[in-house]
Design brief:
single chain, 273 residues, alpha/beta, eight-stranded parallel β-sheet, 11 helices, 39% helix, globular
């Protein structure tokens, strides 16, 4: 079982650095297999969302584990439709019901929905004040959106979850968040397998006796990110957490920095006013 490091948030809490991403896992049996493999490998951090359609599976799995609720870090996100309709606060109790818990460790706004994101963030602040969420944050927010938040937020996000990997490094956003005490969570840290044949990355994998994916994930570790690799294959779930028994050399980090090419495989929030 792998010991996972924690990263301290601006609100004083500590988040496990590696979590299991749960996007698109909508088959209950498949979900349970990946959850059980993750738990056996040492994962305690599980990242769901209203739009993923699997909060109920996560609730059933952590309950069935027999472990105390405090052993888990559970994240969910308010879907864009609920933000757009002004239903952030009204939709959240349904998430808690599906997750079989009276609080989440981290609650995020899934996207910077125009016109409604101010009201939605203020709803998250109320949810936190009432004890429904221990920490709150955002997802897919750019520097522009975070700067705007300074005008209306009582507290700034503890986390900004964005697509981030070797081929989409977003150094300006990462630097901004670091300077403002916002922890960056990297979703799709393997770029959905869009570029798994780079010769430099493969050479590093061969040198360290690791897989190509582990080099990409270790890059996230080296950059102080929280990362959310997603897999439903038990062997890969285990592999994706075996990241703390090697380090990348300085020259390797320098070479990886040159691979940034703005490869987006998901949403492009830079187009959102």
């Amino acid at each position: 079982m792998q010991d996972i490091r924690n990263i301290r948030l601006s609100d004083g809490r500590e988040i496990p650095q590696v979590g299991l991403g749960l996007w698109k896992v909508r088959d209950e049996a498949e979900f349970k297999r990946s959850f059980d493999a993750a738990l056996a490998a040492g994962y305690t951090h599980f990242d769901s969302a209203q739009v993923y359609g699997n909060e109920q599976f996560l609730g059933a799995c952590w309950k069935a584990s027999g472990l105390p609720r405090e052993n888990f870090w559970l994240t969910t996100k308010i879907r864009t439709e609920n933000i757009a309709l002004g239903h952030t606060q009204q939709s959240f109790p349904h998430s808690l019901e599906r997750l079989q818990t009276d609080y989440v460790d981290l609650l995020l706004l899934h996207f910077p929905v125009p016109l409604q994101r101010k009201k939605a963030w203020q709803a998250l602040e109320k949810i936190k004040a009432a004890g429904g969420a221990k920490s709150i944050g955002v997802s897919n927010y750019t520097i522009k959106h975070l700067e705007e938040m300074k005008l209306y937020a009582t507290e700034m996000p503890a986390v900004n979850q964005v697509e981030l990997h070797v081929f989409l490094q977003q150094p300006e956003l990462v630097d901004y968040c670091r300077k403002h005490g916002i922890v960056v969570e990297a979703y799709s840290p393997l770029a959905h397998g869009k570029d798994m044949k780079n010769a430099e990355v493969q050479a590093m994998a061969d040198r360290h006796g690791k897989s190509y994916a582990q080099i990409m994930l270790r890059w996230c570790i080296e950059n102080g990110l929280v990362l959310l690799p997603k897999s439903v294959t038990p062997d890969r779930v285990r592999e994706n957490i075996e990241l703390y028994d090697f380090e990348l050399y300085l020259e390797e980090l320098q070479a990886l920095a040159k691979l940034n090419r703005n490869l987006r495989t998901c949403w492009d929030p830079t187009r959102i006013p």
